[in-house]
Design a protein that fits this description.
Layout: H1 12-26, E1 33-38, H2 42-49, H3 51-56, E2 59-62, H4 65-71, H5 79-89, E3 95-100, H6 106-117, E4 122-126, H7 135-145, E5 149-153, H8 158-167, E6 174-177, H9 181-184, H10 201-208, H11 210-213, H12 219-234, H13 239-247, H14 254-257
Helix pairs in contact: 1-5, 4-12, 7-8
């Protein structure tokens, strides 16, 4: 797969339609639709600690116009836009397993997601810091809950690995990483109505969480420019990147289309012994 040339006119709604269609196509196949997102901050850690997991997802979205520009990718979406729209678009989603954040927040997350979906959504919440299950323990939990939608909001790299381990026990549905969404969804009006139209959601986050995020939008942004060529090379081995472009309605350029790899077949199952990044990364992006 080659990298994609910048294009315009992509829309999250197109990605939603594509995800729902793929979920229906895979019904009964023994595999959910696996999706993750990378931004200019998370991509470095994800590629360093969980490159194989990034390569195995079905769709690898680009979150943030900065990384979109650095990778010359034609589409930009994000979990905080896709998850609410997916809940509203697919009535087959009635139960959610949410992994991330602190404590048992199932009732609060259920109320928030039910409001987004316009119907009751049952949620089982798993603490992302204390007692996070892995491997066989995680798969047993997933099999017991049998969620229609899995949301994993942990640190970069760790959330991709946990996502694929958990998805091994899902015969259908959706498995999505979501960064800090599980925290943001509990804060009414986290993003003002003008933030996304003006593409200033990053500034809203910075103003809300300056101590945690100031480095991400200064020092790490400079480092991202220096590492961009390396990342462009590494992302050539990620089939889900091309899937993100095509499923978002952008598609590769004509030159790249002939070399793009097929990406919609279910990804292979994940072994239990994937390396685990430091637990300090858990809890949201």
């Amino acid at each position: 797969m080659t990298l994609l040339s910048p294009q315009v006119g992509t829309a999250p709604e197109t990605l939603i339609d594509s995800l729902v269609a793929l979920r229906r196509e895979r019904a009964g196949s023994g595999s959910p639709v696996r999706v993750t997102w990378l931004n200019h901050y998370s991509i470095h850690t994800a590629l360093a600690t969980a490159a194989e997991a990034v390569r195995r997802v079905d769709v690898c979205g680009i979150d943030g116009q900065f990384l979109q520009w650095l990778l010359r990718h034609p589409a930009r979406t994000s979990a905080d836009l896709v998850v609410p729209a997916l809940l509203a678009a697919d009535p087959a989603i009635g139960s959610v397993l949410a992994i991330g954040g602190r404590g048992d927040r199932g009732a609060q997350v259920s109320a928030a997601l039910s409001g987004l979906a316009g119907r009751p959504i049952e949620v089982v919440a798993v603490d992302g810091f204390e007692g996070l299950p892995r491997g066989a323990d995680l798969r047993r939990l997933v099999a017991q809950v049998a969620p229609d939608l899995l949301l994993v909001g942990l640190g970069a790299g760790l959330q991709e690995q946990v996502l694929l381990e958990a998805a091994d026990a899902m015969p259908q549905g959706y498995a999505l990483t979501c960064g800090g969404f599980l925290n943001q969804v509990l804060q009414a009006g986290y993003y003002p109505s003008w933030a996304y139209p003006l593409r200033l959601n990053w500034l809203v986050r910075l103003c809300r969480e300056p101590r945690r995020l100031w480095r991400r939008y200064t020092v790490d942004a400079v480092l991202a420019v220096a590492r961009s060529r390396q990342w462009r090379g590494a992302m050539r081995d990620v089939p889900g990147l091309g899937a993100h472009a095509r499923m978002s309605g952008a598609g590769p350029s004509p030159r790249d289309a002939a070399h793009s790899s097929p990406v919609l077949a279910p990804a292979p199952r994940v072994a239990d012994n994937l390396p685990v990044p430091g637990r300090a990364a858990a809890g949201g992006g």
